[in-house]
Amino acid sequence: MSEDCCTPNGNVMILSCSGGSNVGQLSNRAAVELTLEGFRKMFCLAGVGGHLSGFVQSAKDIPAMVAIDGCPVGCAKAILDHAEIPIKNYVLITDLAIEKNKDFNLKDEDVRKVKDAVRRAYINRTVPPICC
Fold it and tell me: What kind and span of H or E run contains 75?
């Protein structure tokens, strides 16, 4: 059994839309903080959107992922759909009663709300756990 088996930093990808609004930036900040806290690892959605082969293949091969979109425009979802990458777990920030605007002074309580939603999305995942 691998030492990495069933560890909190297993192969789980967080992809955030990181768009030009408060909810896009909440997506980015939550992904960064979750990575720094050791929950999972943030990966480059822009690389997937640019169809860079290594990024696309990594996203296709990963056994578990959480995609975070800020608003119903759904850029992260559209990028993954276009690259034919199945979305395994999904969080839409405006569904968390956070309204989209252009105020980049993000509230800590909103960041916590997004991080909690990502954790719940992963826990409620439909893919099998990454255990050996």
Answer: helix 75-82
Rounded to 5 degrees, what are φ and ψ at 78? -65, -40
Instruction: Tell whether the model's pLDDT for residue 10 goes beyond 80.
Output: no
pTM equals 0.86
Q: Identify the bridge partners of residue 122 per DSSP, sorted by sequence position.
A: none
Give the strand pairing for 90-92 and 64-69.
parallel
Q: Do the Cβ atoms of 43 and 125 come closer than 8 Å?
A: no
Q: b/e for 83-92, b at 16 or more Cβ within 10 A?
A: bebeebbbbb
High-pLDDT (> 90) share of the chain, %: 79
Query: What is the average per-residue pLDDT within 24-47?
Result: 95
Token pair in block for residue 8 = 């909190």
Residue pointed to by tokens 């993000």: 106
The residue behind tokens 């989209």 is: 100
**70 alpha carbon, distance to own chain's centre:** 11
Q: Which helix (H) or strand (E) holds 90?
A: strand 90-92
Cite the beta strand spans of 7-83 per DSSP E.
12-16, 41-42, 64-69
